[in-house]
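User: I'm new to structure prediction. If I give you an amino acid sequence, what do you actually give back? Let's try with this one:
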Amino acid sequence: MIRILFICHGNICRSPAAELVLKKMAAESGLALFVSSAATTYEEIGNDIYPPMIRALGKADIPVEHRSARRTTRQDYDQYDYIIGMDQENMDDLLEIYHGDPDHKVSRLLEWCGKCRDVADPWYTRDFSQALADIQEGCEGIIRRLSGNE
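Assistant: Good question. You get back a string of structure tokens that encode the predicted 3D arrangement of the chain. For your 150 residues, that looks like this:
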């Protein structure tokens, strides 16, 4: 089973949304994945998904699983096949936390659909629907690539 870990700053908006979106897409496509998410920081540890993101997920018909934010650890690097950040700041933080990326596991989400840009943080932009649209597009790219349909 392929193991994927999504990463964002606090693990309350983008990374849990990506986790839930990819879980739904994987179930619908029959692709066997283990999907989780984490933060690069400590500030939101223990908190659930941010309510405006829960509302955006509901509008997109994505089932919500309540959870507690957690910070990624060096051990995650060994346990996951792909570690996918939302923005360049996440990427920089991950390389520090993991002491590099010797196995080339770390990527940005939108790279999976051929785009070289970040998923903007809706905590700051307040545009949860755009963040979710970017996340869905990136997750579609993951499904295509891992299914061999790209």
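You can read the tokens as a compact description of the fold. Here is one thing that stands out. The first helix runs from residue 14 to 29.
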